[in-house]
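Note to self: keep these together.
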Amino acid sequence: MTVPMFGIVLFPICLLFWARPFLMLQILLLVGIFPAAAALVLGGLGVQPTMVPALAFMSFVLLQWILGVHYPGDRTVMSLCFPFILVVTWTLLASLIMPRLFMNQVMVWPQKTDAVGGRVLLGPSFGNISQDMYLVINATFLVLAARFLTRSDIRIDRLYRTFLLSGWCVVAICIWQFAHRVAGVPFADKFFYSNPGWAVLDTQMAGPVPRINASFSEPAACASFLSEILFSCVWIVLQGYSIAFARWLIPASALALACTTSTTGFITVGAEICLLPVAAIATGAHKVLGNITRLMLLGAAISGCAILVVVTIAPQVVPAAKFVYQSTTDKKDSQSYQDRSQVDHDSMSLVGETYGLGVGWGSNRASSLLPGLLSTIGLVGVIGLLVFDWKLLRAAMQARQSTPPGPERLVIEGVIPAIVGRLIAACLSAPTVGFLDFYLLVAMLIAAIARVGLLRAAAAPQPQQLMLSNMYATASEHYAMAERNNRQISA
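Structure:
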């Protein structure tokens, strides 16, 4: 067991601020941009940095729960999380049953393909246990964080601003690595890439252009994160929120994403641009359509001027850009794309071979999200997740419409595009979305919905107040009637 430099910095911070759970959540969002680092190395496995603040947070909140502490939005949070809890229960049961039910009947891609070099016969493995452990931690953290964030003394929008700050950190690391690849500026690669369980691709080139992966294991992972930051910032700016560093983060994250030259990032951004008018119409924010047009025209003008300046100063960029464009459009002809497509095809075939039940969580590893989910948790689990997503989205839209602009609405407006961006990128090139920072975004959304319900309940008149007001109204009516009758008699 060894403690890398990242862990030497992270462990004392979490121990020092253990009694400040909200700060632990902010630290989690910040260290979530370092998935290729390790807080602790156990043999050939590295403990994810987000695991340290997450465990510190959960231990404190569970201790409070044992001592009898409850949170105001517990009932709403548990109601929204109930479909997800059912899916997790099914997933855990299926991971025990399916590998034994279909043992030696189907071929699967194991979690570590480099050890076997191909598919193997299905059977119970350590992958089922390890992935179940991660799933239990993620689900427990999601519920606890959502319940904790319903406290009235918490400014939940500060957590969203921390998320935006993490985007600025990734942009800065991208610039740093680009300077390292181009001009030889020293770069802290041993600090960022200390996890032995990850294959770090930090030397890739797109022709003469270096591919930037920042603190992530590969350019596609970096582009996925930047795309969710970009989509979130664009949407809240279009909604009229005056967050200066979010407005400037749009061009900064777009430029950093372009430095990754990732096809996944480019396709994700294209899908997000197509979703903008659809989201504006679906949410009833018709004024956003005009803002979208103005933003696109402004972006096109700035991009055109920037291209003219770059071409004039550095004309050698033109052939490099042509090479990047050609490599992106010819992605389907590459060997890596064909290998990933084959893995996804094999994973989809498992759905029919297991009668839609799946081979069990942790038994098969696909190259993208949907084949990975269908092949492991089956149709039952995927339908359950869709029910959870639909219920959460509907509740978020109702909460958004019933509350004026404020901290809770800002979180709802900003987190939903970030989650959608992460899911789009995962559907292209990620087998799972099992990182704790993603579950924290979902917890923030659930907590914001619950807080809006609490605010509405606090603003509504209480039953006793209604009874008193009705009683006073009835008494005043009788008094007015008596006065009218007296005047008639006197007349």
